[in-house]
Amino acid sequence: MKLIKAVIKPFKLEEVKDALSEIGVEGMTVSEVKGFGRQKGHTEIYRGSEYTVDFLPKVKIEIGVADDLTDKVVDAIVGAAQTGKIGDGKIFILPMEECVRIRTGEKGDEAL
Amino acid sequence: MKSKSLQLLCIGTSPWKFLLLAIILAFSNAVPAHADDHEETPAAEEEAGPVDDYLELLEAQGEYAPAYDFFTTSMLWTVIAAALVFLMHLGFATLESGLCQRKNTVNILFKNVFIISIGVLTYAFFGFNTHYPGDFNGWFSWGGMIGDLNADGGSTWGYGGLGLAMTGFGDFIFQAMFAATGATIVSGAVAERVKLSAFMVFAVLFVGVAYPVAGSWHWGGGVLADMGFKDFAGSTVVHAFGGFGALACVMVLGPRRGKYTENGIKPIPAHNFPLAAIGVFLLMFGWYGFNGGSVLSAEPGALGLVFTTTTLAACAGALGAMFTSWFALKKPDLSMALNGILAGLVGITANADVVSVGSAILIGLIAGIIVVFAITFFDKSKIDDPVGAISVHGVCGIWGTLAVAIFADGFDFMVQLKGALLVSIFAFVFAYIVFTVLKAIMGVRVSEEEEDRGLDITEHGQEAYTN
User: Using H for helix, E for strand and C for coil, what is the string for B154-179?
Assistant: First the structure.
């Protein structure tokens, strides 16, 4: 099993969610985060003084997937979240030791 | 699926039974009593009714009886205006908390609750009679607590020989609402780093003592009144007073941590612009009471003029600040536009009843332009004013006072200038001394760690937004 963490642009969330449902992903956890990569920040101005905002709002999606579904999920996310401009985000794929469904106690692939 | 109403009836049938019983009992008591009265009163006798009460009231007005309707209308308007000025405290609360950081919201709101409370109470205890001492030396006369202001003809027109179209209580409550605004101007400027206890002591002295003393020089019939000074609703005695008191406190207090660095000014942006905008619109709404109520009657001519000039100045002030910030500071800044509305309002406050439509627009426009430059000037001078209170109230207060002589006939520029400076310098010196003494005795500033963590947690142990 793998834990996929994808940091994407906030307005792409709906598209990514739809793309994932299409390939059979039935759940995900979403959090509002801040971050930057090569995109850097932008300049804001308040009462005549400028300042840079380095951290930009992003959305992080976390999904637990079975090994054989991993590539399809990554492709789906890339396809939906991509704009071609700097700041599209990154996907991190981590090995997942175990997964448990709290309601039933199921483990392993059944719990995903 | 049960309907909502059916659900409501089913939930808690016991309270409903008691309510029904109570209604039945009330009716059963009422009906027999009413029947008894009817039998005892002879049909031929005329009942002493409301008309006789009214005629009695008229007689009590003495020579003013023919104008009783005007008196009651004026009094009504006065108390409504007092309520509108009260509403400005809601405006201050939302504006200040909106323009400051999230972590200090509770503290700012708390200070605003405190200010209106002690403002009105000190005004009742000694402020009102110090503000309006009657016959005095023109500089200072300490007054005592207000008593029954309806007594001794206080509930009739011309109470106390003043010829005001309101009762003593009406006069008191209208003026009381003004008093607290002086301290609240300061609260915005010292926000986010002032120590709560020190501020509370300062506010009691500033509003309780300094405000009525300064006010007595003009509205109380003192030295400024003798000079022919004009300040219709308080550009000097309320706004400049508060603004320059704020300047003194900020100079003693110091700026917020991290605001002025070696690399220049590091802005601390507003945390909630909707709140700030709501605050400014509420303040403008309240200003109709502030200026409109200062007509001190329901005289239609003056009232219509004041409402119009006040509104025009506010609008012109907004545009003046908007475009000034756009051209001079690269972008149209919402916080500047909001300050611009207030600048226009402060500017018209001294002269709303004596200027023309065109003048009102110019006064507001110039105030809006001035305020942007004043704000950036103070920032560059490392005088940290999170809400622009010193610029809006202090600087534009003086502008509004001078505008009286510039735009209206029959007023002396030097008199206006002297009056504005006298009150501003007095407020500044008073605040500077009090704050310096407080700094020595108890400290006026929270610690660095407290400032970083936020005053909500450190001074109050509470959070404004728990999610």
Answer: CCCCCHHHCCCCCCHHHHHHHHHHHH
Q: Cβ(B142)–Cβ(B130) under 8 Å?
A: yes
Tokens of B378: 């103070």
Any idea where the domains of chain A sit in the sequence? 2-111
- Which residues on B lie below 8 Å from A50 (Cβ)? 267
Q: How many CB pairs under 8 A join A and B?
A: 36
**Does B360 map to a domain?**
yes
Is residue B381 a part of any domain in this protein? Answer: yes
* Among the listed residues B465, B434, B453, the one whose alpha carbon sits nearest the alpha carbon of residue B200: B434
What's the pLDDT band for B36 if we cut at 50, 70, 90?
very low
The architecture (CATH level 2) of A2-111 comes to: 2-Layer Sandwich (3.30)
Using the predicted structure, report yes or no on whether residue B40 has a pLDDT greater than 50.
no
The answer to whether position B26 is within a domain reads no
| Whether residue B256 has pLDDT greater than 70 | yes
Query: In A, what residues contact B, Cβ < 8 A?
Result: 44-51
Residue found under tokens 């005004």: B123
Long-range contact pairs involving B8-17 (C-beta distance under 8 Å, separation at least 24):
none
Residue A67 and residue A2 in contact, taking contact as beta carbons nearer than 8 Å: yes
Share of chain B above pLDDT 70, in %: 90
Q: Is B137 exposed, middle or buried (0-12, 13-18, 19+ CB in 10 A)?
A: exposed
Residue B323 is predicted with a pLDDT of 96
By DSSP bridging, strand B264-265 and strand A2-8 are unpaired
Query: Is B361 a residue whose pLDDT tops 80?
Result: yes
CA gap A90, A77 in Å, rounded: 10
Contact A46 B267 (CB under 8 A): yes
What is the Cα–Cα distance from B438 to B47, expressed in whole angstroms? 65
Domain range for residue B165?
Answer: 58-460
What letter represents residue B21's amino acid?
L
The model's pLDDT over B166-213, given as tens digits with 9 standing for 90+, comes to: 999 999 999 999 998 888 999 999 999 999 999 999 999 999 999 999
Burial of A56 (0-12, 13-18, 19+ CB in 10 A): middle
Kindly state whether residue B38 falls inside one of the protein's structural domains: no
The CA distance from B282 to B280, in Å, is: 5
**pLDDT (0 to 100) of residue B26:** 60
How many angstroms separate the most distant Cα atoms in chain A? 58
Q: Over the stretch B83-137, which tens digit does the pLDDT of each residue have?
A: 999 999 999 999 999 999 999 999 999 999 999 999 999 999 999 999 999 889 9
| Higher per-residue pLDDT: B27 or B421 | B421
What is the nearest CA distance from B267 to chain A, expressed in angstroms? 6
Task: Extract the tokens encoding B130.
Answer: 């110090």
A48:B328 CB<8 A: yes
CATH of the domain at B317: 1.10.3430.10
